[in-house]
């Protein structure tokens, strides 16, 4: 195996996680070892049950964690509901999230199960991070020791959700800038985009790419046009897999698709379009272990995005509501 993939070894990964924990706010994979020793088994059991009911949920849980971390840090803010009769507005109805982000009920069930064994101890933000890892690994992807010890926000930020979550229409410069704003490198961007090796997207997100772009395989464009009409809003919510070959297996087929000009979103194909990320995409397409290692590294880095300095946090009893 190439030396570039050697960090898949547990001892190397653990060293990396401990180093990143120190750098990003004292998170640690062992944070709950004494206060909730059965946490990880409990989370994995519930995620396993959810994936048995619907394998696509693995991709949904991964995306939920991403959408949480890109808005005021990994603080569980995406889980908060709007509060009727008050001025509190959550992030669930932000454009990138509404009728799109899924998995809230799975997080609720995990929280319920965890509260039975460790009441008032584990944050919803940590549960979301663990669920993303387990959803990935149960679909054949890498596993990693998740640094833990996050707390839950008492606020949400719809404006930041609308502005900071990368849009599927972004070009490469826009993507690099969006990730740089979260202290994530272009390599992190390209690795994390590999999450699109699983899951599905709505027609409204890729219509422009399959009808207007030229950097797309014509046969692939025709295939996608069959269920995504050119005229909006017809078919807006029709789903298509990011990876036609193995949509529910976490592998490196996403990158092979990009090399073949079969990326589903405009933003996907921007990673392989004659610019700075072409070489890395080609490496990932040829070397699944390298992609898996870099993906785990980038997930840890993203997972350490902290709430703003001075933010009031807590351990929520119900992931959807700030403690009264």
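Q: What amino acid sequence fits the structure above?
A:
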């Amino acid at each position: 195996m190439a030396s570039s993939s050697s960090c898949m070894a547990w001892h190397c990964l653990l060293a990396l996680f401990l180093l990143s924990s120190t750098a990003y706010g004292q998170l640690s994979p062992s944070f709950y070892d004494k206060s909730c020793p059965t946490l990880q088994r409990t989370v994995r059991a519930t995620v396993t049950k959810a994936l048995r009911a619907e394998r696509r949920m693995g991709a949904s849980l991964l995306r939920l964690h991403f959408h949480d971390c890109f808005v005021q840090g990994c603080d569980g803010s995406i889980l908060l509901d709007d509060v009727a009769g008050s001025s509190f507005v959550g992030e669930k109805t932000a454009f990138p999230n509404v009728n799109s982000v899924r998995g809230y009920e799975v997080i609720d069930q995990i929280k319920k199960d965890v509260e039975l064994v460790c009441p008032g101890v584990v944050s919803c933000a940590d549960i979301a991070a663990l669920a993303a890892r387990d959803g990935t690994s149960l679909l054949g992807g890498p596993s990693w020791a998740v640094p833990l010890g996050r707390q839950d926000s008492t606020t949400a930020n719809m404006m930041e959700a609308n502005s900071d979550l990368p849009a599927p229409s972004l070009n490469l410069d826009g993507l690099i800038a969006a990730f740089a704003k979260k202290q994530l490198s272009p390599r992190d961007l390209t690795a994390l985009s590999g999450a699109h090796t699983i899951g599905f997207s709505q027609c409204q997100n890729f219509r422009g790419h399959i009808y207007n772009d030229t950097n797309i395989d014509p046969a692939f464009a025709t295939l996608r046009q069959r269920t995504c009409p050119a005229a909006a809003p017809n078919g807006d919510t029709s789903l298509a897999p990011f990876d036609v070959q193995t949509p529910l297996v976490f592998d490196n087929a996403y990158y092979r698709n990009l090399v073949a000009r079969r990326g589903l979103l405009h933003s996907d194909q921007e990673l392989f379009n004659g610019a700075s990320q072409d070489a890395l995409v080609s490496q990932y397409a040829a070397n699944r272990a390298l992609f898996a290692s870099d993906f785990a590294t980038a997930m840890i880095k993203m997972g350490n995005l902290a709430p703003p300095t001075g933010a009031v946090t807590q351990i929520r009893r119900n992931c959807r509501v700030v403690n009264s």
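Q: And what stands out in the fold?
A: The domain at 172-302 is CATH 1.10.420.10 (Peroxidase; domain 2).
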